[in-house]
Each structure stands twice: as structure tokens, then as C-alpha cells.
């Protein structure tokens, strides 16, 4: 701290160096949401949606499902270690629970299992991943900022 700098100014200066600006945070969020990750072999073709719905009923009886395309699997990291895996869906096609309208986006809670290369099970819901998607590492802190 210099003699000409007040304690408040110093804290703002140091905080500015240690914490990204609002604009920087928006750029990081935008990049996370819109920059593709690595291609995956997961997902089902659109003409297999009905088959996947039947598999949901068979494998996860009583658990609601959502159908979505343009999805990304996020491996959430903290200190460079993967601590959880979630799903970000850019386009909800169908949600029988009516929580999300067609065209909305949704991010899931943590992955419990992945079945048939297209069924992403979480504690409360099964997501049917339609079409091609990707996978990327995302800072866990960022997951909680996107609401």
C-alpha cells in the first residue's frame, strides 16, 4: 500500500487483481456455455426417442425423464480434480413434468449412472441425450453461478 492510497482503495486494487471483473466473469460464462468441448459417442438419434423413453420406464421405473438435444457433459472440477459430472442441455425437447418448456435450457444435478449411451441418470431425473453432444471440464464454482 502506498502512502497516497487509502485502505479502501488498496482493498479495491488488490481485490481487482484477485477477482475477475464482472465483464471477465461474463466472458468465462459465455465461453463455458458456447464453446464446444470434446466430441463424445453418447446420444441417440432423434428417431430413437420413443425407444429411449421405453428404456427409461424399464430401467428407472417411477423416475421422471426429460428429452434434450444440444447437450454438453460437464466434468466439474475443484483444484484440477473432477468432483462431479452434470449435464447441460441447451434445448429441452420434452419434459413430461412440465418444469421446462420446449426450447428452454436446463442443467442437471450430479450423474449417478449413464445407460445405453444416451440415458443420463441423476438423483431425481433421467435425461435422454438426443443427437451429438460434447464433454468439457468446468470449474465447479461456475456451475453454481449459472442459474
From TrEMBL:
Residues 43-143 form the DUF6957 domain. Pfam families: DUF6957 (PF22275). This is DUF6957 domain-containing protein. It comes from Shewanella corallii. The lineage of its organism: Bacteria, Pseudomonadati, Pseudomonadota, Gammaproteobacteria, Alteromonadales.
Amino acid at each position: 500500500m502506498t502512502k497516497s492510497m487509502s485502505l479502501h482503495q488498496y482493498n479495491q486494487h488488490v481485490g481487482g487483481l484477485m477477482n475477475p471483473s464482472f465483464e471477465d466473469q461474463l466472458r468465462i460464462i459465455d465461453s463455458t456455455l458456447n464453446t464446444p468441448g470434446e466430441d463424445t459417442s453418447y446420444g441417440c438419434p432423434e428417431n430413437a426417442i420413443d425407444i429411449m423413453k421405453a428404456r427409461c420406464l424399464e430401467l428407472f421405473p417411477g423416475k421422471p425423464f426429460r428429452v434434450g438435444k444440444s447437450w454438453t457433459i460437464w466434468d466439474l472440477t475443484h483444484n484440477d480434480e473432477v468432483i462431479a459430472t452434470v449435464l447441460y442441455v441447451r434445448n429441452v425437447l420434452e419434459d413430461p413434468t412440465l418444469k421446462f418448456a420446449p426450447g428452454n435450457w436446463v442443467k442437471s444435478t450430479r450423474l449417478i449412472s449413464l445407460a445405453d449411451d444416451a440415458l443420463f441418470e441423476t438423483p431425481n431425473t433421467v435425461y435422454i441425450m438426443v443427437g451429438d453432444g460434447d464433454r468439457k471440464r468446468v470449474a465447479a464454482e461456475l456451475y453454481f453461478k449459472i442459474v
